[in-house]
Each structure stands twice: as C-alpha cells, then as structure tokens.
Amino acid sequence: MKLCALAKAAVKKVAALDDATINSALLAMADAIEGKATEILLANEKDIEAARGTVSDVMIDRLRLTESRIHAMADGIREITKLPSPLGVTLDKSTRPNGLVIEKVTVPMGVIAIIYESRPNVTSDAAALALKSGNVSILRGGKEAYNSSLAIVTAMKAGLSSVGVCEDAINLVSDTTRTSSYELMRASGYVDLLIPRGGAGLIRACVENSTVPCLETGTGICHIYVDADADTEKAISIIENAKTSRPSVCNAAEVCLVHKDIAKDFLPKLKEVLADKRAAAGQTPVELRLSEDALKIIDGTPAGENDFDTEFLDYVLAVKIVSSAAEAIEHITLHSTHHSDAIITENTAVADLFTKEIDSAAVYVNASTRFTDGGEFGLGCEMGISTQKMHARGPLGIRELTTYKYIIRGNGQIR
Amino acid sequence: MKLCALAKAAVKKVAALDDATINSALLAMADAIEGKATEILLANEKDIEAARGTVSDVMIDRLRLTESRIHAMADGIREITKLPSPLGVTLDKSTRPNGLVIEKVTVPMGVIAIIYESRPNVTSDAAALALKSGNVSILRGGKEAYNSSLAIVTAMKAGLSSVGVCEDAINLVSDTTRTSSYELMRASGYVDLLIPRGGAGLIRACVENSTVPCLETGTGICHIYVDADADTEKAISIIENAKTSRPSVCNAAEVCLVHKDIAKDFLPKLKEVLADKRAAAGQTPVELRLSEDALKIIDGTPAGENDFDTEFLDYVLAVKIVSSAAEAIEHITLHSTHHSDAIITENTAVADLFTKEIDSAAVYVNASTRFTDGGEFGLGCEMGISTQKMHARGPLGIRELTTYKYIIRGNGQIR
User: Fold this and answer.
1) What's the gap in Å between the CA of B63 and the closest CA on chain A?
2) Burial, B200: exposed, middle or buried (Cβ in 10 Å; 0-12, 13-18, 19+)?
3) How far is A123 from chain B (nearest CA, A)?
4) d(Cα A207, Cα A186) in Å, to the nearest integer?
5) C-alpha dihedral over A70, A73, A74, A78, to 10 degrees?
6) If DSSP codes are grouped into helix, strand and coil, which group holds residue A75?
7) What is the mean predicted confidence (pLDDT) over A363-381?
8) Does residue B76 contact residue B124 with C-beta atoms inside 8 Å?
9) Helices (H), A272-366
10) Substitution target from B195, B238, B370, B406 for chain A, most A beta carbons within 10 A
11) Which of its termini does chain A have fewer beta carbons within 10 Å around, N or C?
C-alpha cells in the first residue's frame, strides 16, 4: 500500500516534534474541523443518503454528524492538548557497577494503524491521540462513513499544514474493502501497532491474519456478582446502570450472578426494576434469561446453552444463582472475556478474594462496569479497550500508544 | 494439546503463590537439579550421542552439560530468588472526582510458552523466570536436547513437589516436531504469551502463524558508527569487543560505519586490530567486507549486495564510509533490526542527535553493543531480547513477563 510508505516516511518528522508543536497542531486541527463544518456536514449527508436502507437506524444515528457533534469532535481534540506528553518520560535510570548509565525513556511507536467502524468521530479521536503520542496514524474507517472521514481528514491535514507540520502524519485509507484491512494486517516493517476496533469478526480476522503487532480490543461479556453480603439497593442500581445506560457498548453488563442466600429476596426486586418498571414507563424492558433455579423464583426466559457466553449488546441479561463467591469466581473465570467484572458486597474479605482471583482488565467492587473507559479512568480519551494481556490492558490512552528505548551512555566500556 | 489444558488449570494455583513460597520452590528446584546431576548427565550423554555427526561442533558444545554447567544452572535459579517480586506492584493509584479509587497493579500473564533452541540451560532459566513472575510455563525446546530437558524438568518438578507447589507449573512438550510449535502458536485461550527464541526462521514462522500474542526476539544487525569526533582508541576497543568477544550472539556488531573525515586514519588501525594482529596471534581474523571507498584505503573483501543486511554471527564485519552523522543515522534507520546500535563520539550534540533519532531497543554512546543483556542491564537474567515495540523492548526480565489489571473500588457509583 502506497500509504504505508508515506506513513513510514513521516515517522521521523513526527517523532521530532516537541509537545508544544504537537499541541499547536492539535489546536489547528480542531479549528480546521470547525472551520470546515459545512463541507463535513455535506459529505456526511452524502454518506447518510447512501447508507439509508442498508444499515440499521442505530448505525445511521452513529454515522450522523450535526453542528454540535462537530464541535464536540473539535473539543475532544482540544482536551487532548491538556494532557501531559507521554513522550520522553524516564521510566528507569541506573548506573551500573561498570559506570554505564542506562536510561529507559518513552518514545513513540512509529506508525499506528486503526481499523474501525463507521463512526466519524473516531477519525478525529484516533488521529489526535496518535499525534499527541508522537505517532503517524493510518486510519481505515468503515465504508459507510468514508466521505465524512475524508472531509474530516482533509480539514485536519489543512490544520497540520497551517502550523508547518507534515500532512502525512495523518493518513486515511481510501479503499474501504476488506483488501485494505488485510494489507494493513500484513504490513510488516511499516505498521508498528495495529488496533482493530469493531465487531468480533474484525478482531478475529486480525488475530488470525495479522503479522504486525496487534492489540485485541473490545468484546466484553461483563459480569456482576451479587454477593450474600451485598447492599441490595447498591446492587440493583449498579446492575440497572451497567445494563441499561448504554446496552450497545462493550462495558455493559451481560451476566448477573446472584448468591443463593439472597436470591429469593433479590431477584424479584431485580425483575421489578429492570423489567416491570421500565415497561410501565414505556422503556424497553430488559429480557431476563434465567437459570433453572432462578426461574423458580421469578418469571423470565429460560437461559439457553449460549446465554452465558454471549455479548448481547442489547436489553438482555443472563441471570444465574451461585452457591458461593468461589463458584461465582469459577463461573467468571470460565466465561469472562477478561474485560470488566464486578462484585457487589459489603464484605471486605470476599471483595479482596474477588479482586485477587478475577483475571480481567478491570475488576470492580461496588461500582458499575460502565466505568471502564479512558475518560472515566482519567486518561483523557481512549483508542479502545484492550482485552489481551500483552502491552496494555483496559483503556488505551496516549501512554499506551508509546513504547520505550534504552539509552546507554558510557566512556569506552567493553564486556 | 493436552499440556495446554494442564497448564491453564495450574494458572490459578501458581498465581496464588506468595513470593516467599515461589522463592522456596525455586531453591528446591535448584537443589533438585544438583541432586539429580548424575541422571541429567546421563540423559545429556544420550542427546550428544544422537546429535553427533548431525549438527555442528558449536551446537554440540552448546548442548553439552558438565558438572560445573549443572551447578551454574542451579546457581542461575538461586540468583532469581534474590530479585524483588515483580507482582503486586501498584503502578498507579488515583481517586476520581466521583470517589472511585482506581489502582493499577501488576499480575502474572498466566501461561507463557517458550519455543527455544537445543540449549539445556534455557530449560531451567525459562522455567525459573516464569515461576518467579507467577506464571505457568510451557517449554518447547529443540529436539537435540530433549532427553536433557526432560531430566532437568523432572528434577525441577520434584523440587516443586517437595515444597508442595503444583508440578504443572512447569510443562515440557514431548513432541519436538514442528507440529507442537504450530499448536502452541494457535493455542488461543490457553497461551497468554508466546516467546520464540532461536533463528530467523522460527521467529518468522511465529509472526506469520501465531494467533496468540507473540514477542519477537533476537535478530540483531547491530551497527557501530565511528563519528568524526570519536576517540579512536575507544572506538577500536569497542568494535573489537562487539565483534570478536562472541560473534554468534545477537548483540554482536555486524556493521561499522566510519565518518569520512577520519576514515584514512581509522581504517588501517581497525584492520590491524581485527585482522592482522588476530591472525598473527593465531586467532580467527575478522573478514572485512568493504564499501568501494573503504577499499581504496585498506584491503579486504568488496562488500556484496546483502552485506549490510546480514546478521553474520561470525568473524565478518561490513564496513562503510559515511559523510555525516545524518547519513549514518539514515543508513541505520534503513538497515537496522532495531536491536542495538552505537555511536562512538566525544561530541555531545552529535551523541544526543544519535540517541534521539535511532529507533532501536538499545542505543549506545561510547560502549559496546554486547551489553544488551538482562544481566548487564541489572534485570537478573532474561528470557530473550525483544526487537519489537509492543509490550517490551530489549532484554525480557521478570517484569516483562507480567501484565497488570485495574482494581476499582467504589461505594455504589454508577455512570
């Protein structure tokens, strides 16, 4: 891909920028996006026209830009300028007995490629995060948003150019077929890090086919375990929030495990809040898929074979009764995607056991799984949520887009 | 592979061990290796008998164990017990405006698989490093060393067992054909990190085929740039050390770049030390593969097309004259494998330019590239040298065998 060579050629120039220059480039990008709002909205209208009828209403909504969404994109970039630079940070420094001074310093990755869904705002977020961390970005967005992304990238490049920064710091892939995704996965020597964002199919394709280092993101089968010593009110409010505040996202809860000692009291309350009250208020009720013993306590759909291994991304919650915290931990260990899992309990010892044994990127005590998010974690914004263990786990902020090198200073040492 | 399931089942038990227990297990492993020295030497003799005539003398030497090498293996394990635990370290802790306390804590990876060459000592090093960092290891060593590795692993397992630690913490793959390597590369859900050690072919096979997170190690085309402002004596001594102290290893120098202003004075001295003096002393002289302009100054082999892109691992050094530090940086950027590269100069500004612009795991000023090594860096020992940028760069010590998780404590927070 020609773009890969352009991107690689820009690495040295971008790595040489200091943080003040990067910030002025980011501000210029934000201004340019607002300045070109009319052009961006026109391009977006074209995308929406073409997409109408071929994709769901939810997707059309994600695709749609408005004046206010464009301002939000620009403000998102401005927010990033307020973050301290993740570059040039000395992680370690030591003087060895032979006098060598070994320093471990953060540096950019080089070229970061992102394959993402048809969401125009990701185009500006990803480009800005990559630039703040000294990287060149290759953006491969979904085909439905291509015209919008092109207009946004054109504006951002104009912004870069206005402050004398190399336009090739940001690169948009024009081929939105699978071919370009596969090319990026195999672009060894050009792409230092590939981040696939999107559905399970894309992630799997990257894991299966990628020869470049690749960060798995996303899939979240998040659990909430309501312990025997749970505060019932907290539990209900947390589950309601984790399930219904935004069911389509990866940090939404999909499974609720309830300790047998409180199940009889707790399950009817859960059903009341998630199903009955919502239905009465004209909101989509949550469909409860219940294990056999739970079905003896409340009404609901009998849980099928796959219901404890499914990321519903919908108003559906699988519910199971467990006989102990240990059984809950065992279930989660077996079924979790290692994204975010929570325990609700007032018992510190049980909470400590849970946080020690659950092997997920984010393990919660008495809080909603919905907090797994770069902004909520104080990282600024994020490039996605890593569900693998290598390199970075959880929200990928600017720090996670860097690597390090060792600089060793001597005066003639030999070994 | 049945072994993968055994390994995965042991993860929780090994992760639950505290550092004192891990250290006593390591000491018991070391004692058991010494206690079973006779059995290990017998097994090794069998390996050597079988390998004789099929592999090189150098490889036979690497394969051979002696009483003193067995003690060295045991002592290597004992050294690891002196390192502080890399687990349970709080990397970050913050209280968010909503009261959530977010803590980022180091934890084991889980299962680490290592595919390595026929060197029995790697069996004990790798198992010990993995255990110290709370991980279960799957060891897939070269077929020539299988009997030796089996005897070592049998001893180590007896050591584990003697202090009540689960024997499945260490697993040796009995199938030494390619099939087992490919199975490990595709063992998604079982292997959390795969480390291939060995030749370029193995590394490439892992990069091409692996669906599990994989850390590229090894290949080192290391450069030494002798600047116009170099101290000639330091330069000669460093190049001699980097080239001849152990030519078969990845941190040995393969290419020397010399600034044109000093080439006429420097090259004859280089040739004298690397070639003439060594020949006179009955040592293997270094073959110099010279660029055209260098050939006008000293005698040597004309450099061929690939000589600046080859990891010789032998008494061969490619030599080229450059007209500036910038040209040296450009050459290295194009030809380096991003392992270790050095500049020899007394000019601080040029040294700073070099350390800033060279994008390698280890960048040296006035020291030998041979220092890129876990022990030399103060990491204890190492599992290999990473040449990729994701997760870890340079020597892989116990810290690099861990990941982290976020533990978030709240009192009912919802988003």
Assistant:
1) 24
2) exposed
3) 23
4) 11
5) 160
6) helix
7) 93
8) yes
9) 277-280, 292-295, 325-335, 348-357
10) B406
11) C
Predicted confidence band of residue B396 (pLDDT cuts 50, 70, 90): very high
B79 neighbors B380 (Cβ within 8 angstroms): yes
pLDDT attached to residue A21: 98
Q: Where are the alpha helices (DSSP H) in B36-114?
A: 37-51, 57-63, 67-81
Cβ pair B293, B321 in contact under 8 A: yes
Output the CA–CA distances (angstroms, integers) from residue A26 to A30, A34, A152, A240, in the order listed: 6, 13, 13, 38
Pairing of the two strands B222-226 and B362-367: unpaired
Length of chain B: 415
CB interface of A with B, residues 82-121, below 8 Å: 94, 96, 100, 102, 107, 109-110
Contact: B355, A410; criterion CB under 8 Å: no
- Tokens 């026929």 belong to B118
- Yes or no, beta carbons of A406 and B188 under 8 Å apart: no
Burial of B38 (0-12, 13-18, 19+ CB in 10 A): exposed
The residues with which B95 forms a beta bridge, in sequence order, are B101
**Confidence band of B187 (pLDDT split at 50, 70, 90):** very high
What's domain A222-371's superfamily in CATH? Aldehyde Dehydrogenase; Chain A, domain 2 (3.40.309.10)
Distances (CA, A) of B317 to A313, B34, B234, B313, B320: 59, 41, 18, 10, 10
Give mean pLDDT, residues B386-406: 95
Contacts of B218 (CB under 8 A, 6+ apart): B197, B198, B200, B203, B250, B339, B384, B385, B387
> Is the whole model's pTM more than 0.80, yes or no?
yes
- Integer Cα distance of A135 and A169 in angstroms: 7
- B-contacting residues in A 225-264 (Cβ below 8 Å): 231, 233-234, 237-238, 240-242, 245
Residue A151 to chain B, least CA–CA distance (Å): 32
For residues B216 and B184, is the Cβ–Cβ distance under 8 A?
no
pLDDT of residue B62: 86
B382-415 residues labelled b (16+ CB within 10 A) or e (exposed)? bbbbbbbbbbbbbbbbbbbbbbbbbbbbbebbbb
Q: At B215, list the tokens.
A: 């850390």
- Has residue A218 got a pLDDT over 80? no
Q: Are the C-beta atoms of residues B118 and B52 closer than 8 Å to each other?
A: no
Residue pair B121/B76 in contact by the 8 Å Cβ criterion: yes
| CATH 3.40.605.10 is right for the domain spanning B2-215+396-409 | yes
DSSP states of A116-158? --S-HHHHHHHHHHHHHTT-EEEEE--GGGHHHHHHHHHHHHH
State whether residue B189 sits within 8 Å of chain A by CB. Answer: no
CATH 3.40.309.10 positions along chain B are: 222-371
Per the DSSP assignment, residues forming a β-bridge with B317 are B288
The size of chain A, in residues, is 415
Residues of A in contact with B213 (CB under 8 A): 388-390
ipTM: 0.94
> Where in chain B do CATH 3.40.605.10 domains reside?
2-215+396-409
Average pLDDT over residues A365-371: 98
